[in-house]
Amino acid sequence: MKKPLIEFKGVMKRFNNHTVLDRVDLEIYEGEVATIIGKSGSGKSVLLKHMVGLLQPDEGSILFGDQPIHQMGKKEWSRYISQVSYMFQNNALFDSMTVLENIALPLRQATNLDRKAIEERVRMRLEQMELDEVEMKYPSELSGGMQKRVALSRALVTDPKIVLFDEPTTGQDMIRRNAILSMIAEYQRRFGFTAILVSHDLPDVFFISSRILALSEGKIIFQGTPEAFEEFQHPFQDEFVESLEEFQEHLTGIYSKRHFKVRYQNILSRKRPQESFVVGLFTLENFEGLCEYLGHTTGQKVLEALGKYINKHFGAVGGFSARQSRSQFSVVLPFSDLPEAEQILRDFSMDLQEEGLRIIQTEARIHREVCFEFAILAGLAESEFGAKEIDCIIDLAVKNQRVVARVQCGERR
Amino acid sequence: MERNQLPLISPLGRAMITLTNHLGGLFIFLVKSFLMIFQPRQFPLIIEQVYFIGARSSMIVVLVGLFTGMVLGLQLFHTLVKFGSAGVLGSAVALSLVRELGPVLTAIMVTARAGSAMAAEIGSQRISEQIDALVTMRIDPLRYLVSPRIAASMISFPLLTALFDIIGIIGGYITGVVLLGVNSGAYFYRVRSSVEMEDITGGFVKAVVFAVIVSTVCCFQGYFTHMQKNSYGAKAVGLSTTTAVVLSCVLILVGDYVVTSLLM
User: Are B138 and A110 in contact (CB < 8 Å)?
Assistant: First the structure.
C-alpha cells in the first residue's frame, strides 16, 4: 500500500468559538497534484497553512512520513520546511525588491550557496519562466500574470519537494487562469514535486489534478480521482460544484464535461434502441511542447481557438462537443452513422488544413515566421443507443485516432 | 459586598493583565531580536538600515539642532543678561544640549521620520503576508526585519545625537555671538570648560536607551499589526504607526527621567 507523504489525522482548528477544521483526515501522496476544493471560508487556506507551520492544530496531528511536524525538533523542522514552498494567494512579493532580488531572497537568506551559484540558479529560473526581460523591474510594474510567475519562480528556486499553491489563479482572466494551471502542471511534471492546490477553477483544475479533496463544513468529504469525483453523490455537488461549473466551459465556450453528459443523455433518450450514433475524439498533439515553446498563454489560446472551431464545424451538422481533458475534445454526432461521420471528418480535415489552422494561428497571435510544430489527431467510434457507456465509446475513438492536420514550422501540411 | 466591588475591580484587573502581557511580549520580542543581531548574514542588512535610519535622518537632525541651539541661545542670553552672566551662555547652551535636549529631541525626530516608517513598513508586510512568506522560506522575520533595525538604531542614535549637539552649539553661537554680541572666545571657552566626559557619556547612554525603545516599540507595533482590535488592513497599519509614534515619544520622556535619575 502506498504510504502518504503528508497525512492529517483528526486535525481540529478553532478560531474563538468557530470550528474551521473539524477532525480532518487526509492523505497527500508523493508526486501527485492534489487539489483542495471547497466553499469560500471553508478553511482551505487554513488547512494549507497548517502544513508550513503558520498555524498549529488545536487537536490531532500532521505527519510528514511518520513524524508529526508540530513536534519536530529545530533541525528536523528546518530539514522539513526546506523541502516545502508556499505560493501565496496574493503572491506576497516584496514590493521594495526587484524581480531578481525577490527570486534570490530564499537562496541568499536561507542557504549557504555562494553568490555565483545563487546567480546561476536565479538566472536559470528567470529564463525558464520567461522573466529575464523584467528581472530589474519591481513587482508593481508587472502584470498580474507576470507577478504570479515571479511568485512561482521564487517558490521553485529552492528545488522543493512539495509546493503549496493557495488559489494561484485568483483575479486572472480565463486565458491566464488556464495558462497558470498549465504552467503548474508542466513544472510539476518537469521537476517532479508534489503539488497541493487550493482552487475554485472548476472544472479547469480537474484537468491537471491527480486527486481531488473536497472540504465541506470543516471535514474532508471526498478524496479521490477527478473521475471518481464526477460520480460523487453528495449535496456538496449540487450546492457548490454545479454553481461554479457553468453550462459552458470557460476557456473554449463549449459544454463542460458534466453538461455534455446531460445533453448526451437527453438527445439519446429520444432515439430508438439500435439506432446508431458516432463519437469523435480530437487531440491537440504536443500541447506541452507547444506551451513550452510558445508560452502557456499562447498554448491556451490555440486550445481555445481549436475548441471553438471544432464546435462550429460539428455544430452545423447537429453535433455537440465538450472539453474532455487538457488537450482533448469530444464530439457526439447523434444523427450520423460511421460512413457519414467519416465523410464529415474528411471535410473537417480539409477545412482545417485550408483555413482552420490559419484562423487558429491568427487567433492565438502566432507570427508566421515563428517555427513550431503541432498536430491534430482525430478518431471516430460508432455505437448504438444504450449499448455502451459514453466513456467506453470515447476510449474506442482514442484507439482510432490518426493525424488530420499538422503544422510544421508555421507551414500547414 | 464582594460582588458589588467586582465591576470596578475586574476591568482594572483585565487592564493590568493586558498590560503585563504586552510588556512581557515586548521584552521577549526585544531579547529574541537582540540576540539575532550576532547571527551570520546580518552585516549587510544592518548597514542598509544604518543608511536609512542614520544617514537619511541627518538633514532633519541638522535643521532641528540648528534652530534648537539658536532658540536656546536667544532665550538663555536674555535670561542671563538679567543676572549679568551673559558670558556663561556657552556653558548653558552646551550643557542643556548635551545632557538633555540633544538625546531627547534627536530620538523624537528619528521616531517621527524612521520609527513611523519601521512600523508602517513592517505592518504592511504583515498584512500582505510577506512576513508569512519569510517563515515559509525558512527566514526568521525577527532576524531579517527586526534585529537589523534595532542594531542600526543603536549605532545611529548616538551618532545623530552627537551631530545634533554640535549643530546646536553652533546655533547658540550664531545667536549669542554673531547676532547678540557675546564674546566668541568666551563662548567656546565656556563650552569646553563646562562640558565633562560624564555629560557626553550620559547623553550617549540616553541615546542608546532611546534607540532600543524606539526601534523595539515601532517594530513590535508593525509586527503585530494583524492583532489590532477592530481594525484590519490599511487602517490597522495606520493605527499601528500612530500608536508606535505616540508610545515611543511617551516612553522616551519616561526613559529620560529614569536614566537621568540613575545617572545623577
Answer: yes
Q: Which residue type does B137 have?
A: M
Q: Collect all residues from B whose CB is shorter than 8 A from any CB in A.
A: 41, 125, 128-130, 132-133, 135-139, 144
β-sheet bridge partners, residue A212: A35, A224
Which of A48, A109, A114, A170 to mutate to test binding with chain B, by most B CBs within 10 Å of its CB? A109
Name the closest residue on chain B to residue A106, using Cα atoms: B137
Q: Do B132 and A78 touch (CB under 8 A)?
A: no
Q: What residues of chain A have any CB closer than 8 angstroms to a CB in chain B?
A: 49, 52-54, 78, 81-82, 84-86, 88-90, 92-95, 105-106, 108-110, 154, 158
- Taking all residues of chain A, what is their mean pLDDT, rounded to a whole number? 83
* Spatial distance between the Cα atoms of B259 and B212, rounded to a whole number of angstroms: 13
pTM: 0.77
**CA distances from residue B172 to B83, B92, B176, B204 in whole angstroms, order as listed:** 19, 10, 6, 21
- Express each pLDDT in A329-356 by its tens digit: 888 888 888 888 888 888 888 888 777 7
Which grid coordinates belong to A286?
A: 504536443
**DSSP string across B130-199:** HHHHHHHTT--HIIIIIHHHHHHHHHHHHHHHHHHHHHHHHHHHIIIIIIT---HHHHHHHHHHH--HHH
Lowest-pLDDT choice from A174-183, B26-35, B95-104, B204-213: A174-183
Report the distance separating Cα A382 and Cα A393, nearest Å: 7
Are A134 and A99 in contact by the 8 Å Cβ rule? The answer is yes
Helices (H) and strands (E) in chain B, counts: 12, 0
Task: Say what the pLDDT of residue B37 is.
Answer: 93
What is the reported pLDDT for A256?
61
Q: Cell numbers at residue B189, please?
A: 571657552
What residues contact A115, with CB distance under 8 A and at least 6 apart? Answer: none
With a cut of 80, say whether residue A82 has pLDDT above it: yes
Contact across the interface for A92 and B130, Cβ inside 8 Å: yes
Is residue A118 very low, low, confident or very high in pLDDT (cuts 50, 70, 90)? very high
Q: What angle do CA A86, A88, A89 make, to 5 degrees?
A: 145
Q: Determine the Cα–Cα distance for residues A137 and B64; give it in Å rounded to an integer.
A: 37
Q: How far is A116 from chain B (nearest CA, A)?
A: 16
3-state secondary structure of A71: helix
pLDDT digits (tens, 9 = 90+) for A137-172: 999 999 888 888 899 899 989 989 999 999 888 777
Percent of chain A with pLDDT strictly greater than 90: 26
CB contact under 8 A, A54 and B133: no
